[in-house]
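hey so i finally got around to running both of the ones u sent me last week. sorry it took forever, my laptop kept dying halfway thru and i had to restart like 3 times lol. anyway pasting them below in the order u listed, first the sequence line then the structure token line for each. didnt double check formatting much so if smth looks off just lmk and ill redo it

first one:
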Amino acid sequence: MDPPMRPFAPLSVIGLLLVASVVALGSTGLATAHLTPAATPVQGNITGPTVLAYKADKSYFINASGGPAFAANGTQVGNLTYYASVVGTNLTGVSIIPSTAPFVSGPMDSTVLTVNNVTQLLTIDVEITSVYRTANESLNLTYSVNVVQPYVLSLTVVSNSSTTILGFTLAVELDGTRVGSVSIPTLTAKQSYTATFQYATLGLSAGQHTFTVSLANEHGLVTFAGGATSFSETFYVPGPPPDYTLWYVAGAVAFFGAIFIFLTRVAARRRNPSRK
């Protein structure tokens, strides 16, 4: 005799399979939700000098964050990249390197701008893209840089030592305020070295100005040419040319006034002729 049938066994198996599938789907859903990046806007800025001397090359720092490339907890899960270019009237000899790079070691990266010897206003254009899977957002940044003809200070240092002197740095002051530094390389015994400092500015006030450099901390091992431990150079900045517009106007008024008086007197004499 055949054993009794168990019609509900397959249904039990199907139910278990459905439960397992739901659990698996739920787990997958949770994992996907955890990886979903936050919808925060792309943010960034550019920092660096705003005035450069002729032929200078300086670093500019690009900061960026946000967008699809970052998850809700701040973890970077996608690609964050910048694309840089330069706009100006004369770009011969002007470059920005690297012009594109991903942010791989943090929210900051740097690029070097090299300029020519043309007085002009340059604009650094940067596009930052934040990408994760099919999501893509970008941010455009601009930064203005003035290229100017610099004030140039030239000085010569002399080693008074019979041995090698390691390289050092000299502070440069303008009218008592530090404005930069000059790097002196390693000097051999009795060697002289001429260093140049370029000061870039949008303008100085009219009158006399003085650059000053001191070797007081070198304890006599190094002096300037002639044996001095301090060096200064004074230069004069002329003021704007005088505005003669007011004088021109006053002169013209006086001239035409004199003509008017002269013509009036002549006309009066003609109206009243002398009797004979």
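and the second one:
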Amino acid sequence: MLSYLWKGKKSEKVENENPELAMREACEAHGEFAVNPDGTLQWEAFLVFRSIIMRQACREFARFRDELNQRKLDAFKARDQPTYVAIFREGQQKFNNCISTMSKKACEWIELEPENYKLSIQNFFSDE
């Protein structure tokens, strides 16, 4: 996408159809993820790692999105607000599950403790 905006070359590389395998390939392509002495990720490594996780979690969720959107549309047309809200919540839960699952698998792949990843998130996004 960014290459399009700045008139760069389009990559010829095709992403793996399986989001988990694509996540592994992206982590391998990045190389070593820099960590602090306490085991948390450094800022640049965190950005790359989080981007990889979110990209592949969104691809994983795409399998459910069309069906959920159709069900929401049907409930909307039927003016069935409780069903619409329930389907919306179901979609949010599935999306969060995709993120959690991909995060867990990515941490396993790069041999990062999930607790250290969570601590990295807290360190970067805490209000001081």
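quick thing i noticed on the 2nd:
The chain is about 75% helix and 0% strand.
anyway thats it, ttyl
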